[in-house]
Design goal:
The protein is an alpha+beta fold and 346 residues long. The chain has eleven helices and 14 strands. α1 packs antiparallel against α2 and α2 crosses α4.
Length: 346
C-alpha cells in the first residue's frame, strides 16, 4: 500500500501544529512550521513536507532545535541585518528574515538578511514568496552540512544547498524558482524509499561511490550539472556560512564536535521594485515576457512550456481539491510520533 492515506491540507496542518505544540514548541511557531511543511506538500515537494516531522522531533530531542529560541539581530547596517536564530526552527527564522530583508529594502531599495545558527530551512520558495507578495524581487539560499558529492569526489563534500528566486506577478501571485544544487534534493530520495519506488539513473551514488537506482542504497546525491552544481553549493556556503562566521563544511569534514550537530545558515535578499521603477510596469513586462516564452515553438512531446513554479501552483490547486496521498511508511512514522504525544491522527 505505497500510497497510504489521502488527507486534506487542513488536516495535515492541524496535525503538524498539534504535534509540535505537544512537544513544547510555542503555538505561533508550531503553526508557522506546519504551514511551510504543508505548503511544500501541496506543491508536490514531499521532500520538504510533513515527512520531516519525525526528523524534527529527533533534532529537538538532540537539543539541536530550540523550542523557545531568542532570535536576535546581532548586527544591523543601513541595508542589512545579521540574525542569530538561536537554533530556531528554520521556518520561523526564515520568515523573520524575509520580513527583515523587506523592511530594509523599503528603507534602502535593497535589503539583505543573513541568518546564522538556524535549523532545517525547508522550502525556500515559501520565504521568497513572502517578499514577492510585498512587491519585492527576492533571492535566498541556505547552507547545510555536507550530504552531496563534490564533483570529482566519491564522498560528500558539499550540501544540496537550495536557491530560490521569486518575483511578483500582481493579483497576489508570484513566480517562484526553487531548486536544489543537486540533481535532486536528498529528501526526494527518502520519499522514493518510503514510496517503494526506484530512483532514476544519475541521481545518486551509494556509500561506496557507485551509481545506484535503489533509494535505500543511495547515500549521496550528485550535483546538478556536475561542477556547476557543486560550485554553486560551495558559493552558497561562502555567503551563508562563512560571512556569518558559522562554517559548516569544514567543521563536518574535519569531524569536529560542532560538525556533528544539525546546523544551517541562510541569506535572503529583497529588492523593492518600486524604488527603481513602476511596479505595474514590471508586472506588465513580466506577463509580456511569459506570453512570448509560452508562444515559442515546442519540442516534440512537450504539451506546454511552463514557467518556474507553474507546475507547483497547479499541483496545489489539485491537491487542495482532491487531497494529498501520503505514503504508508511516512504516515505510519508520523502516527508513531503523534501517539507519543497523545495527538489523534486524522
Amino acid at each position: 500500500m505505497a500510497e497510504g492515506v489521502t488527507v486534506t491540507a487542513e488536516q495535515l496542518a492541524v496535525l503538524a501544529e498539534a504535534i509540535f505544540t505537544a512537544k513544547g514548541m510555542a503555538r505561533e511557531h508550531a503553526r508557522t512550521v506546519a504551514e511551510v511543511l504543508v505548503w511544500a506538500d501541496l506543491r508536490g515537494a514531499p521532500s520538504h513536507g510533513v515527512q520531516r516531522i519525525p526528523r524534527y522531533i529527533e533534532i529537538i530531542e538532540a537539543d539541536e532545535m530550540n523550542l523557545r529560541p531568542q532570535m536576535t539581530i546581532a548586527k544591523e547596517l543601513r541595508g542589512a541585518v545579521l540574525i542569530d536564530a538561536d537554533r530556531a526552527p528554520g521556518q520561523v527564522s526564515m520568515s523573520f528574515a524575509a520580513a527583515e530583508a523587506a523592511r530594509k529594502a523599503k528603507e534602502s531599495g535593497i535589503g539583505l538578511a543573513l541568518v546564522r545558527r538556524t535549523t532545517h530551512t525547508a522550502a525556500l520558495g515559501f520565504y521568497t514568496r513572502l517578499a514577492a507578495l510585498q512587491g519585492m524581487a527576492a533571492l535566498a539560499g541556505s547552507a547545510s552540512w555536507p550530504n552531496m558529492i563534490y564533483h570529482g569526489a566519491r564522498d560528500a563534500g558539499v550540501a544540496t544547498n537550495p536557491l530560490s528566486i521569486a518575483v511578483p506577478r500582481g493579483r497576489g501571485e508570484s513566480m517562484i524558482l526553487d531548486m536544489a544544487t543537486g540533481v535532486v534534493a536528498l529528501g526526494k530520495i527518502v520519499h522514493a524509499a518510503r514510496s517503494g519506488k526506484a530512483i532514476p539513473e544519475g541521481w545518486a551514488l551509494d556509500k561506496d561511490g557507485q551509481p545506484t537506482t535503489d533509494p535505500k542504497s543511495a547515500a549521496f546525491p550528485l550535483p546538478l550539472g556536475g561542477p556547476k552544481g557543486s560550485g554553486l553549493a560551495l558559493m552558497i556556503e561562502c555567503i551563508a556560512s562563512l560571512i556569518t562566521q558559522n562554517p559548516l563544511i569544514a567543521e563536518t569534514l574535519e569531524g569536529t564536535a560542532e560538525g556533528k550537530k544539525h546546523r544551517q545558515n541562510a541569506f535572503l535578499i529583497a529588492i523593492d521594485i518600486a524604488a527603481f521603477g513602476a511596479l505595474d510596469l514590471f508586472a506588465s513586462s513580466l506577463e509580456r515576457t511569459i506570453a512570448d516564452l509560452k508562444a515559442l515553438p515546442r519540442q516534440d512531446g512537450i504539451a506546454e512550456i511552463l514557467m518556474p513554479g507553474e507546475r507547483g501552483e497547479r499541483e496545489a490547486v489539485r491537491r487542495r481539491r482532491d487531497g494529498m496521498a501520503i505514503p504508508a511508511a511516512t504516515w505510519a512514522e508520523i502516527g508513531r510520533v503523534a501517539a507519543r504525544f497523545g495527538v489523534a491522527m486524522p
